Amino acid sequence: MSETTTMTNQQDVLVRVEGLKMWFPITSGLFQRTVGHIKAVDDVNFQVVRGETLGLVGESGCGKSTTGRAILQLYRPTAGHIFFGDEELTTMKGDALRKQRRRMQMIFQDPYASLNPRMTVGAIVGEPLEVHGIGNKKENRERVQELLRIVGLNPYFVNRYPHEFSGGQRQRIGVARALAVNPEFIVLDEPISALDVSIQAQVINLLEDLQSEFGLTYLFIAHDLSVVRHISDRIAVMYLGKIVELTDRNELYANPMHPYTVALLSAVPIPDPVIEEQRRRVILEGDVPSPANPPQGCNFSTRCPRVMDICRERDPEFKDHGSGHFVACYLYD
């Protein structure tokens, strides 16, 4: 990462990602030789400031969830550095990494798949306390009831099982589990996309209340740009394993610079029929290339309506074009 990517004082930065790559091998033949790689995340750089919500948006399969999991070391990165405060996570193992994991948690996309159906709610929410050796049995039971109360559930539901709850309630159980060990940083992996629209706002409001109450820092992964604008302080736009634009949420909507961001925002409906009718929709042609065989130069060059010759030759640098508005595009060089 270049010096220009220093957006705030280092003491305010909680998570720093530098040159992150997450490549999955493609194997073939009897001996399973590696014949290529799926470049799920390819040279990603960004910072998350303490107490903020950084939104990470893009199409399905662009590497958003993989980025979140690599930050938490659920996937060990192929290359790059991930700093949590002053500690580098990529070189940590064993007990040192376990201690850091108390400070980081994840809330998963599917509330139906992320909770063990054979465990009671009390056991699910209390499991992180057990794993990290926190408290005795009585203290943990009281802590679990307190956590359920915090997320808006009846504290006496501890002996019930996940199938007895609705999707929104299950996601609240997932939130309670994430809060159990008092983390500082939470990766929210599309936490509302599997929920009914009527429930989504309730969960978003809960997450915002918890952030202000406990001083949490969020990486909010989503593909719904209207939701991301509501909850995020800054937004990073991802395409085929790379971040193409990163800036303040209002700046992104008022002045999108990357052609891919322009196309994404043009697809967001506006509830004013007059403005909606006058606005120009950008339709991208072709399909997203395979991450196993990305195009030469800029990854977006095969679909970009403003492509130039240089775009097909060299990958543009991700740099600040003023006031912390980072873009990887030759249109502004």
Strand content: 15-25%
Q: How many independent structural domains?
A: 1
Contiguous runs where pLDDT drops below 50 for at least 5 residues = 1-8
Overall body shape: globular
How far the N terminus sits from the C terminus, by CA atoms, comes to 18 Å
- Helix tally equals 10
Radius of gyration: 21 Å
The top-level CATH class is Alpha Beta
* Level-2 CATH architecture: 3-Layer(aba) Sandwich
Helix share of residues?
25-40%
Biggest sheet overview: 8 strands, mixed
The total strand number stands at 12
Summarize the structure.
This protein has 333 residues and is an alpha/beta fold. The protein contains 10 helices and 12 strands. The chain is globular, with a radius of gyration of 21 Å.
Descriptive notes:
- This protein is an alpha/beta fold and 333 residues long.
- It has a single domain (3-103, 183-332), classed as Rossmann fold (3-Layer(aba) Sandwich), CATH 3.40.50.300.
- It has ten helices and twelve strands.
- The strands form two sheets. It has an eight-stranded mixed beta sheet with strand order 6-7-8-3-9-10-12-11, with helices on both faces. Strands 2-1-4-5 form a four-stranded antiparallel beta sheet.
- Strand 1 and strand 2 (33-49) form a beta hairpin.
- The protein is globular and about 65 Å long.
- The relative contact order is 0.14.
